[in-house]
Amino acid sequence: MILDENNLIIKEFKEAEAILHGHFVLSSRLHSDTYIQCAKIFENPSRAMKVCALLADKIKKELNSSIDLILSPAIGGIVVGYEIGRQLGIKTMFCERVNGKFELRRGFEIKKGEKILLIEDVITTGKSSLEAVECAEGEGGKVIVEASLIKRNSETKLPFPVISLIELNIQNYSEEELPSELKQLPITKPGSREYLTK
Predict the structure, then answer these.
(1) Is residue 23 part of a domain?
(2) Helix (H, G, I), strand (E, B) or coil at 83
(3) Where in the sequence is the domain holding 37, given as residue range(s)?
(4) Coiled-coil segments, which residues (predicted)?
(5) Which residues face 98 on adjacent strands?
């Protein structure tokens, strides 16, 4: 799906001014002419509850196993992870980067064998997801499913099921593949991960 104007979820994101257009460098270091700023959804608590309720319902319908806890990578996944945890009644925590690597801090603990629902706001390449999995499994847990508000590309594959509120097909470009019209626009770097560009 490419930003179907009639889709009710897309309408919520547009009304929240969460769909941005321009020249963006994503946390994955890929370039895009479209950025989904999920943080704008959470400016309005009523909208946040409504959108997360849709994802929570989808998780309940598609999840085939019990879950012990929700883990979200900081920063983008923290609020959506908490809200989904609140609605599903599941313990929730987040991992954060220390020297570029995800770790558990603030007294969070994962017990050996605990089954984990990983939650992100947006999945692009799945790199952050896999880094969060490494953190979880290093603590003895097991990620069995991931959920997100947005999956930017339906072709992105991960080694466990992914439940997304909506899947889009937004074109991403490497530095070498940039179309001429995108090269002419100033770059914006809206993500939370530190990275370098040429």
Answers:
(1) yes
(2) helix
(3) 8-188
(4) none
(5) 101
Q: CA 176 to CA 183: how far, in whole Å? A: 11
Total structural domains within the chain = 1
Q: Return the number of other C-beta atoms located less than 10 Å from residue 179's C-beta.
A: 11
Contact assessment for residue 23 and residue 33, using Cβ atoms and an 8 Å cutoff? yes
HSE toward the beta carbon, residue 113, CA cutoff 13 A: 0
Q: What is the pTM of this model?
A: 0.86
* Least confident segment among 70-74, 164-168, 194-198: 194-198
Residue 152's CATH number:
3.40.50.2020
Tokens 């370098």 -> residue: 196
- Name the residue with tokens 């809200």: 83
Q: What is the average pLDDT value for the chain, to the nearest integer?
A: 90
With cut-offs at 50, 70 and 90, classify the pLDDT of residue 197: very low
Contact status, residue 149 vs residue 165, Cβ threshold 8 Å: yes
Does residue 193 lie in a domain region?
Answer: no
